[in-house]
Amino acid sequence: MKLWPLILFAGLSALHAETGYNAWLRYAPLDNPPALPAVVSIAAPSVLETSAQQEMIRGLRGMTGRTLREETGLPKENAIVIGTVAQLAPELHLTATAGPDAYVLKTVVSGTRHYLVIAGGDERGALYGAFALLRKIALGDPIATLDEHDTPYAPLRWVNQWDNLEGTIERGYGGRSIFWDGLKSREDMSRVSDYGRMLASLGINGCSINNVNANPKILTPELIPHIARIADAFRPWGVRVMIAVDFGSPKTVGGMDTFDPVEPKVAEWWKARFDEIYKAVPDLAGVVLKADSEGRVGPATYGRSHADAANLLARALKPHGGILFYRGFVYDHHMDWNNPKNDRGRAAYDNFHDLDGKFDDNVIVQIKNGPIDFQVREPASPLVGALEKTNQAMELQVTQEYFGQSKHNVFLVPMWKDVLDFDMHAKGASPTPVKALAAGKTFGRPLGGFVGVVNIGLDDNWSGNHLSQSNLYGYGRLAWNPDLSSRRIADEWTKLTFGSDPKVDETITSMQLSSWRTYENYTGPLGLQTLTDITGNHYGVNVEASERNGWGQWHRADENGVGMDRTVATGTGYIGQYRKPVAQMYESLATCPDDLLLFLHHVPYSYKLHNGKTVVQYIYDSHYEGADAVAGYARQWKTLRRLVDEQRYKTILAQLEYQAGQAAVWRDAVNVYFQKMSKIADAKGRVGHWPGRYEAEAMTLKGYTTRDIVPAEDASGGKGVACAAGAGTCAASLNFTGEAGWYTLRVEYFDQSNGVAHYKVWVGKQLVDEWAADLRVPSMRLDSSTSTRRTIAGIALRPGDEIRIEGEPNGGELAGLDYVEIIR
Amino acid sequence: MKLWPLILFAGLSALHAETGYNAWLRYAPLDNPPALPAVVSIAAPSVLETSAQQEMIRGLRGMTGRTLREETGLPKENAIVIGTVAQLAPELHLTATAGPDAYVLKTVVSGTRHYLVIAGGDERGALYGAFALLRKIALGDPIATLDEHDTPYAPLRWVNQWDNLEGTIERGYGGRSIFWDGLKSREDMSRVSDYGRMLASLGINGCSINNVNANPKILTPELIPHIARIADAFRPWGVRVMIAVDFGSPKTVGGMDTFDPVEPKVAEWWKARFDEIYKAVPDLAGVVLKADSEGRVGPATYGRSHADAANLLARALKPHGGILFYRGFVYDHHMDWNNPKNDRGRAAYDNFHDLDGKFDDNVIVQIKNGPIDFQVREPASPLVGALEKTNQAMELQVTQEYFGQSKHNVFLVPMWKDVLDFDMHAKGASPTPVKALAAGKTFGRPLGGFVGVVNIGLDDNWSGNHLSQSNLYGYGRLAWNPDLSSRRIADEWTKLTFGSDPKVDETITSMQLSSWRTYENYTGPLGLQTLTDITGNHYGVNVEASERNGWGQWHRADENGVGMDRTVATGTGYIGQYRKPVAQMYESLATCPDDLLLFLHHVPYSYKLHNGKTVVQYIYDSHYEGADAVAGYARQWKTLRRLVDEQRYKTILAQLEYQAGQAAVWRDAVNVYFQKMSKIADAKGRVGHWPGRYEAEAMTLKGYTTRDIVPAEDASGGKGVACAAGAGTCAASLNFTGEAGWYTLRVEYFDQSNGVAHYKVWVGKQLVDEWAADLRVPSMRLDSSTSTRRTIAGIALRPGDEIRIEGEPNGGELAGLDYVEIIR
Has the ipTM of the complex gone over 0.85? Predict the structure, then answer.
């Protein structure tokens, strides 16, 4: 059976420019390909070894222009030989051993023959070894004499997709679901297969295929064939399928009168359901459950514990070898914000710590990296260090929910590394980094590892933009080996994705490595968390959205100071959830790191950081640094013109320029907020003073009316102008009074998602620019999410020139304007 | 009124890769832009000057990133100043003069101000000057101190489009008509406007907008508004519209009982029609007429002369200043081929020579460059040198009818130059090159010039492929200044289209300059004419298609010799139509150039050329040289990877590789034909002996049946195999007996236009390639037009390997195969 032909040759005849579809598996022609044999052989024609063989042929065909001969068994000439250690050891006299998913790459000389041997601990390991060898070749690493053993750090390296059965994806920014459409599996499964290939190339061995906020329908008989189709598409890549279920299903789907986990009939119902699914998908990996959280029902309905709930499902899965992932993301979102002792940060620990040891061995508690929810910076979740007799896995978010939603470029690996390498002091004197705890190494747990929430979609480039692919790559590489450095991962990804030109590599790698700090600088430094609209779109700035509600993401900024007091001494006691050495470090202002200060302590604005700056001045400075850095990325990117293919060059440049505008919006909004709140002026005089800026509301308006923007800091001066639908074309104009010269105009306008307004900019009678406001950002209002910069460079101005901006509303989009900047 | 905004800014926001839409007007950013003022001013806000000003702004914006200020009148600061000499001379003290369409580029210092002056002899000249300055800047020519006068060589620089009113284009290879669809003008006129801009950039000032094989409906009242719309779209670019008419229109459209040109009522009818059209299009340039040719009716119906017909229409146009282009392409296509005195080459001269002086002053006889029909090589038409008292224009074919129909790359400028520079000895001792005669210079005619048959269409890149754009560019540049060298034109076009990288420039320019000779080498050397199916698609090889029919493109190859005896002494007397010095040169074998030998003489195959080779050996050698050269182009192109944008790089590479395959088909077909006919073997032993070639008909066939190919030389061995529809998948296989090594397989298959067959190639059980035969070539048969090469490089073969080709027919396409070549 041949599954690969159309894939195998697709790349050769394609006349298209780079779409990003092949991501880091482009297999672009090498300038100096290494010497390679003409044969690639597999020990046995199994599904996984055949995948490995076909991938090797495909990859080398792309990189060297040659098609290796596919053979089975030990060839009578030089060859690449793929198989398991058990299959290959006898004939090749291998002495190495390898565990599950692990592999050996070894040059074996047998008489006059040279074999490049890929020996897996199992067939999946052989597949991973094939991808590893291809990666080496693509990176230009030497392969003449190999003797390497590579074993994954943790047994579980999974991804979750939050895909809804209707085809949308919760927090997905790369298009609609590749799995689902209209409550059925998608007709075309080729994207699933290609996703499986991408995952396999990273050593990822499982994927949950529906939203953790699960539609109960997933458990209906009608859905089983669809789950099976998806599993079939993944199987050649060694990716096992998992489904997310709703705990109330016995009632909603089963028609029963209860879903109480201690009721035998409920247990029977779950068992029957799983038995049914396993008939169609015998290698189903297991089930994910989100219970008693954010409106999902759970065991609390009947006063039962999370362990009761988890074990209920785990026991139904057990006979099939299935695993139950129980999400640790459980908290009360109706907390009283007036009570200074309340703390959502405590929830995971408080909910699960006492249950340690009560979970079955095939249960895994899936814990987010931080105690809140994928914020721009959080400490490691204290629950990670607290479970000694419970399997755990660390949930990392690859999809950029709080990180600019694929419109901003943030390479998350350095952030993940920060958490994974953090020593929890969980067991005596020897280091117990988060990664070791999550992987089950510290307390010798049978299961453990990593879960990445990926949420790729049908977009050509999967991720919504080219650079965001680096996060899936980085997650996968870390899940396999969290000891890899951020630089190594960024460098690998860049070379595989954009080629090995040293300037391209250096420029992109350095941008990637600084991008998290940059994003933090303009969105939420010092542990403030991402200062976005946390009850809304999680995208634009809204400093107070976290306050005065029950969701508990409070930073508690007021006139006197800012920060959440989580100390044991005076605060919520959260810090006490850590082991003593960690708790001591966090409890004391003297040792608490600046980066987490406001996450853990409430301090006055004038508080001096370790770096010598006051808190409020650091907020101001970091926001300018962040916005300047993004502007720098766009400038640096321009130096790659002609070194990166035209299509990706232009797409990424447009993205970085957009991000530069958004970073300025964040900078101004956050700084204005804190200057107003703290009543402490920016020592450098920048905040509130923008040279060359003209507020739209202060311009001569025709048709436009002034609007108060909510929150006020989301717009410059707290106001913008809008052109009501039906008002025709509106205009805002000013007279230029500066000296003659070349200028850049920056028009800050509001690009809502509910229409496509048109803008024109005139200098005197000359039209100098026009554009359609056709971005899709998640807001239909005049606010910081829709606030967008249009940069018009190279404009010659003379004193007395009238600069006029015309806006033509469309649909619900009001052709809004915030300001114009005129800069040299 | 602003016409340009969407055009002006389109390039800035486009995220697309290079489509070729902007051709040589890409205005790509310059690495080192020159110092330029901030203002571009026009003397008066007329349509043409405004176009010039907007183009200047657009071009400099693209190249420098700056938007010049648009002003009117003489600016009070440094500026680019555009206007007519008459407008600008007083204030700027210009002493230069310029005629119609001409321009002056001059740096004028006035006090402290520097003006870069573009002064046209008229407004159109100013527009042309603006394009000229932009071209200089794009090419990196110095512009700091300018003092240049540029005057077009001829007053008429026109293009014809053979567009049918239904939307197809006769001999058009770049998509459907930009003008017409369903007997109406196309809804969207933006392509017409953009075409006008391209033409204006070359100084082309007129365009006929419908096929010379004219649909009589063009003269109906319903069509007038549509002609007017097209004229409106062209007008801002100084391009005047012309229409082609059918001489029988008084009967077919007018309902009259005659179209006899001497009937007064016929004259009145034409006058009334033209009066009507001129009401809607007051600047209509005139009318093109093809009469008494290839089935078109004409004055011969009533025994009247071409002058009667031409003057009839010319007089109706005269009051409006219109011109009548009368096509000199008149011949009898029912000639007796058995009569050795018959000669289509004589027709133009015979038909028009005696009428010299009988045409009105607003008549132009439009003469094709050669006496036959745009063949790969023809001598200059003798009629050009024979008309002393008649206006003429030279018709050159830009669309590649006999030149590979945009699937082969042939840069035609060197061919045109050959003809234009040819001295006709028409007037005493001083040189009278064709260009001077055509332009009216030699005999002081009031009108004259050049007409290019362009036939661009709706394809993104206008021409069907990127490289073919060079022919429109080259035609326009030559029409403006036929003294420009081919190298200069190729170099300009390459830099404007692909940028100024020296390697890119040198590679493409050298390929272009040799491409005509290369194409001649493999399609019809020594004046044989293009050895294609002249009564059919004009695309593939058919050496005898020209013979034994009345169309008169005979080369008269027989067992004893080849060539058309056109001597005065023993042949058709055609040579006697030239002036004496030319006739003497052609008449004598001693002085007749090799390149035209067989066009003018019949000689034995063993006849020795000036270069020392026999005719037949030269035919063999030149075909190998031609095919090898195309293979070389593809190899050279590969060295431009990463230097040319990905999209065009891949598209052009695919085209050159296809052309390389086709050139081999031509090589083999022509050589086999002449070896069979002459019974003289190739001295180098190549013809008929193809190392590594396996005929499909000799392979082990399953389902495939052997077919005789007609003509036999169109397939290797005269046979191919086909898979009848309904036979399912067929297979042809062979056992490889060579030594182990890396090989390239070349599969020669038949890609008909009436289906999309699928092919798979297996080595043993391994699928090594597959493809869909989805090209559109103008044939539905197994023949040399559909014969297509698939190259499969990098295949490791071992003795005993079975190589199997599977073909799955589709529609009428039979998955045909000719042969497989296995080469190292």
Answer: yes
Which runs of consecutive H residues, i.e. helices, occur in A183-223? 190-202
Instruction: Look at the alpha carbons of A678, A684, A689, A690 in this order and tell me if their dihedral is positive or negative.
Output: negative
Distance CA A810, CA A724 (A): 10
Lowest mean pLDDT among A719-728, B47-56, B692-701: A719-728
Tell me, rounded to whole angstroms, the distance of Cα A525 from its chain centroid: 19
Find out whether A539 and A533 touch, Cβ atoms under 8 Å.
yes
A300-358 pLDDT, tens digit per residue, is 999 999 999 999 999 999 999 999 999 999 998 999 999 999 999 999 999 999 999 99
Strand (E) or helix (H) holding A773: strand A766-773
Give CA B776 to chain center in angstroms. 19
Does this model's pTM top 0.90? My answer is yes
Are A65 and B763 a contacting pair at CB < 8 A? no
Phi and psi angles of residue A205, each rounded to the nearest 5 degrees, phi first? -120, 10
8 A C-beta contact, residue B713 and residue B816: no
| Average pLDDT of the residues of chain B | 96
Contact A749, A773 (CB under 8 A): yes
Are A103 and A84 in contact by the 8 Å Cβ rule? The answer is: no
CA-nearest of A192, A179, A190 to A223 is: A179
If we measure between CA atoms, which residue out of A501, A538, A428, A412 comes closest to residue A463?
A: A412
Distance CA B502, CA B512 (A): 15
pLDDT value at B12 more than 70 = no
Spatial separation of the C-alpha atoms in residues A238 and A205, rounded to whole Å: 6
The answer to whether the beta carbons of residues B697 and B721 sit under 8 Å apart is yes
Could you report how far apart the first and last alpha carbons of chain B are, in Å? 66
Distance between CA atoms of B41 and B73, rounded to whole angstroms? Answer: 6
Token pair for B346: 């004589």
pLDDT grade for A16, boundaries at 50, 70 and 90: low
Please, are residues A674 and A605 in contact by the beta-carbon 8 Å criterion?
yes
Quick one: angle between helices A47-64 and A5-13, nearest 10?
10
Residues of chain A contacting residue B796, judged by C-beta atoms under 8 Å apart: 38-39, 66-69
Chain B neighbors of A66, CB-CB under 8 A:
742, 793-796
Query: What is the spatial distance between Cα B355 and Cα B205, in angstroms, rounded to a whole number?
Result: 28
Q: Is A334 exposed, middle or buried (0-12, 13-18, 19+ CB in 10 A)?
A: exposed
Does an H or E element contain A231, and which? helix A224-234
First to last CA, chain A: 66
**Torsions phi, psi for A516 (to 5 deg):** -70, -50
B657 touches chain A (CB under 8 A): no
Chain B residues with CB inside 8 Å of A769's CB? 9, 67
* Residue B748: pLDDT band with limits 50, 70, 90: very high
A475 exposure class (CB count in 10 Å sphere: 0-12, 13-18, 19+): buried
Residue of A nearest to B772 (CA): A13
pLDDT in tens, B287-312: 999 999 999 999 999 999 999 999 99
User: Does B651 contact chain A (CB < 8 Å)?
Assistant: yes
CA–CA separation, B356 and B391 (whole Å)? 9
A214 Cα to chain B: minimum distance (Å) = 38
Is residue A255 scored above 90 in pLDDT?
A: yes
Return phi, psi of residue B194, to 5°.
-70, -30
Region B373-400 average pLDDT: 97
For B760-773, the DSSP string reads EEEETTEEEEEEEE
Contact A793 B38 (CB under 8 A): no
* pLDDT band with cut points at 50, 70 and 90 for residue B42: very high
